Amino acid sequence: MKEILKLKVQATKRKIFLEEISNLIEKEGFAQLKMQDIAKYLGISVGALYKIFASKEDLFLAYVEYQIKKFHALLKEHTKNIEDPLQCLQIYVRLKFEVFQQKRRAIEDPLMGDPFYFLKMEKRQYALIEPIHKMVASWFAKMHVHKPLKEENFLKLAYLFNSFTNGYVEYWLIHGEDLRPTKVVELFLQGVQQ
Q1: Structural domain count, the chain
Q2: Report field, pTM of the whole predicted structure over 0.70
Q3: Which of the two ends of the chain, N or C, has the fewest CB atoms closer than 10 A to its terminal CB?
């Protein structure tokens, strides 16, 4: 029982710290932050921070994981009563672009330093993204009933759609054009509809 309590306390601390660290990363960026800066911001010792996050990379991966879970919850909330799959895809793109715009400072450093960052994420992070891909795949499946798609592996389409929208984000980060969701779904569907 004592060990279970200890683990729950640790998980609660981690979540609270991630909420606060998210604000700092989104304001300051990640690359120039040191663990000492983060510990000072949280009002804890560097040693206490390292007990929760083994390294700066571990902290960033925890941040990414936290943000993926938040996005999934946001997406479920915004699409829960919507039957139209096209509308759901449009909501997905709008929310994704809004989140990236809000978190530009947080993602700019790792993405600019390594444009393939998301392709190199560990399987653990991909497992977190999988429920989002499955939601998107279900929308493609519904869409296929009314207007056939060239690809009937809807999960594959979801991955391709994610990469397509990530391309927009990468272009936005590098070239600074507005990140607008209009026509993104339409452009993608032009390539996959029969």
Answers
A1: 1
A2: yes
A3: N
